[in-house]
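User: quick one, fold this
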Amino acid sequence: MELSAFGAIMKFAMEREEEIAAVMKRIGSVGGESFRKLGERIAADAAKSIKFLERTRREHVNELILEEPTTGLFVDDYLCERPPREQPTPAEAGRYLIDMLDVIIRFYTDAAAKATNPEAARTFNRIAKKKAKLKASLEEYISGLE
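Assistant:
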């Protein structure tokens, strides 16, 4: 399914952030205290990203822009393929979260390129950069496990 309007892009972004937070709540305790703290950072960042997206939508994007047609962004391109099993190892949970962050970073980067509203593009790029920093922290944690 194509995200064919800017409003759909914003909604999809918020849904992915909610998914990241939900996954963290489910698997955040598998790796001990340091993984739990990192998971809390990731979940808190997801909540902040949702608020940032909502604020951008409310303050900088009018209804005409929300209905503005877009092309080239497809839902299937931004979904993670392998959900973690019920009780993953810390390394499995970390790799899955890295996959999720990779996908969301790519989504925000692609959405920024498609955005005609400069503030929306800045928002997408800013969130992508924050996610990249979290991903680097997670990769560092995972490398210590292997």
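User: anything notable?
Assistant: The CA atoms of residues 84 and 92 lie 7 Å apart.
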